[in-house]
Design brief:
Blueprint (H helix, E strand, L loop, with lengths): L19 E4 L4 E4 L5 E6 L10 H19 L3 E8 L4 H10 L3 H18 L7 E4 L4 H13 L3 E4 L2 E4 L15 H10 L15 E6 L7 E3 L2 E5 L1 H12 L4 E7 L3 H16 L5 E7 L2 E3 L2 E2 L10 H6 L4 H9 L7 E2 L2 H19 L7 H12 L4 H17 L7 H13 L4
Parallel strand pairs: 3-4, 3-11, 4-5, 11-12, 13-15
Antiparallel strand pairs: 1-2, 6-7, 7-8, 8-10, 9-10, 13-14
Helix pairs in contact: 4-6, 6-7, 9-10, 10-12, 10-13, 11-12, 11-13, 12-13
Bound molecules: 5'-O-(N-(L-cysteinyl)-sulfamoyl)adenosine and zinc ion (ZN).
5'-O-(N-(L-cysteinyl)-sulfamoyl)adenosine binds next to helix 1 and strand 11.
Length: 408
C-alpha cells in the first residue's frame, strides 16, 4: 500500500537527548535505547469512517516520538498497518449497501490526506491486512507446528497459555482480562474454546463474507495476527516501540506479543509498549461505533489550519485522557498566530535556551504541554520587544516544525 509523502525536516543546531517513555509492560518510565535505527510499529486505522481527533491524537504523539528520535541522531524505521478487512468494515458495508473495498479505499485515502495535512511523518511501510494474508497464513502454520493452535468448528484459535509471558504487556488479572476481552472484539464465551482468552487467528468462510484461499483453508485472518505478521515481516522481533491508543493494550497488544513470542521462541516482541490516552467528546470516548466524532477532514474543510489542530492536540500530555472542546481549538489558533508573529520578527532573544527546554521536555516522557509553554515564552518575548539575535526567529520556526511538526 502507498504511504503518504515525506515532508522536509529542518535541521536544528546540536542534537537532542535520548527519549524516555512510559512502558505499559514495566509500569514505569524507561529510556528507549535503539541501536542506530529506532524501530517502531504503530497500529493503524480500521478504515470504515474518517479520521477523528482520537486517531489524530494517537498518530501525532507517535509522530513526536519519531521526531525526537531523529533529533537524537537516529534513523527511524516506522511501520503501520491498515485493518482493511475486519468485522466493523463488513458491518458498515451491509448498513450502507456499499462494497467493503470501496469504503476501505476511500477512508484510507482520506486518512493519508489527513496525516499529510497534520504533517505526520509517513511510515516507510504502510501495509494492509489483505495484502498480508499469505504472510499471516505462514505464521499461523508456524504456530500450528508448535502446537499452539486448535480448531473450533473450522475456526483456528491461538492458545494463549503457549506463551509463558502472556499477560505481561497489560498487567491485568484474569477476571479483568476476560471482561475486557469481551468488550473489545473477543469471544470469551464461545463454546468449544479451551481457554476463554484464546484468540481467533483464522476464521473460516462465512456466507456473504469475503474469503481468501490459503493452506489454512478458505477464510480470513483474525485481527491480532495481522499486526503480529506485519511487525515480524518488516521489523523483526524485539523492536523498540509497539504503539497505539490505550484501548489496544489489552487484548490487542497482549495477543500480538504472545503470538510473536511463540513464533520466534524469544521475547520480548517489543522493548516498549507505549499507549496514547483516549480523547472524548460529549462525555464519551470518541469512537466510530458510538458516532460521537469530530473529524480532522471536517475541520480542514471548514478552513481550520491543520497546524492549529496539531497544537490543540499537543496541548495535552499523551498519557492523560482529555475532552476535545471548541475552546481548546480557539486557544490553539491564538497560539499559532502568536508563534507565527514571533517567527516573522526581524530578531529576537537567543532561542537556544528554548531549544534546550523543548528538547528536555520532549525527551522526558514526551511532555508536549511543557514544550509548548517554553515556545510561548520565547514567542511572547520576541513579539513584545526586539531581542538582539537576527537568526533566532528562523530557528524558532525550525524548532516548531522539526520537533513539534507545527508549520509556521
Ligand atoms: N486497526 C486497529 C488497530 S490494528 C484499530 O484499533 N483501528 S481504529 O481505527 O479503531 O483505531 C486506530 C488508532 O486510534 C488506535 O491506535 C486506537 O487506539 C486509536 N484511537 C481510537 N479511538 C481513540 C480515541 N478516542 N482517543 C485516542 N485514540 C484513539
Ligand atoms: Zn494493530
Amino acid at each position: 500500500m502507498n504511504s503518504w509523502p515525506e515532508p522536509n525536516l529542518p535541521h536544528l543546531p546540536g542534537t537532542g537527548y535520548p527519549l524516555w517513555l512510559f512502558d505499559t509492560a514495566a509500569g514505569s518510565v524507561r529510556v528507549t535505547e535503539p541501536e542506530g535505527t529506532a524501530r517502531m510499529y504503530v497500529c493503524g486505522i480500521t478504515p470504515y469512517d474518517a479520521t477523528h481527533m482520537g486517531h489524530a491524537f494517537t498518530y501525532v504523539n507517535f509522530d513526536v516520538i519519531n521526531r525526537v528520535w531523529r533529533d537524537n541522531g537516529l534513523e527511524v524505521h516506522y511501520v503501520q498497518n491498515v485493518t482493511d478487512i475486519d468485522d466493523p468494515l463488513l458491518e458498515r458495508a451491509v448498513q450502507t449497501g456499499q462494497d467493503w473495498r470501496e469504503i476501505a479505499d476511500r477512508e484510507t485515502a482520506l486518512f493519508r490526506e489527513d496525516m499529510e495535512a497534520l504533517n505526520v511523518l509517513p511510515p516507510q511501510h504502510y501495509i494492509g491486512a489483505v495484502e498480508s494474508i499469505p504472510s499471516v497464513a505462514r505464521y499461523v502454520e508456524e504456530l500450528q507446528a508448535k502446537g499452539a493452535v486448535y480448531s473450533v468448528d473450522g475456526d483456528l484459535y491461538f492458545r494463549v497459555a503457549s506463551d509463558p509471558a502472556f499477560g505481561e504487556v497489560a498487567g491485568l488479572d484474569r477476571d479483568q482480562m476476560i471482561s475486557v476481552f469481551a468488550e473489545r472484539g473477543g469471544d470469551p464465551a464461545r463454546p468449544g474454546k479451551e481457554d476463554p482468552l484464546d484468540c481467533l487467528v483464522w476464521q473460516s468462510e462465512r456466507p456473504d463474507e469475503p474469503a481468501w484461499d490459503t493452506p489454512l483453508g478458505h477464510g480470513r485472518p483474525g485481527w491480532h495476527i495481522e499486526c503480529t505478521a506485519i511487525a515480524l515481516d518488516h521489523l523483526g522481533m524485539t523492536f523498540d516501540v509497539q504503539g497505539g491508543g490505550s484501548d489496544l493494550a489489552f487484548p490487542h497488544h497482549e495477543m500480538c506479543a504472545a503470538e510473536a513470542q511463540v513464533i520466534a521462541g524469544a521475547r520480548p516482541f517489543a522493548r516498549h509498549y507505549v499507549h496514547s490516552a483516549m480523547v472524548s467528546w460529549q462525555g464519551h470516548k470518541m469512537s466510530k461505533s458510538r458516532g460521537n466524532l469530530v473529524f480532522v477532514s471536517a475541520l480542514r474543510h471548514a478552513g481550520v489550519d491543520p497546524s492549529a489542530i496539531r497544537l490543540a492536540l499537543l496541548a495535552h500530555h499523551y498519557r492523560s485522557d482529555w475532552a476535545w472542546t471548541d475552546q481548546g481549538l480557539e486557544g490553539a489558533t491564538k497560539r499559532l498566530a502568536l508563534w507565527r508573529m514571533a517567527a516573522q520578527a526581524p530578531s529576537g532573544p537567543d532561542v537556544l535556551p528554548t531549544l534546550e527546554a523543548v528538547r528536555t521536555a520532549l525527551a522526558n516522557d514526551l511532555r508536549t504541554p511543557e514544550a509548548l509553554d517554553a515556545m510561548d515564552a520565547w514567542a511572547m518575548a520576541a513579539a513584545g520587544s526586539e531581542g538582539p539575535d537576527a537568526d533566532s526567529p528562523g530557528v524558532f520556526a525550525d524548532i516548531a516544525d522539526a520537533l513539534l511538526g507545527v508549520r509556521l
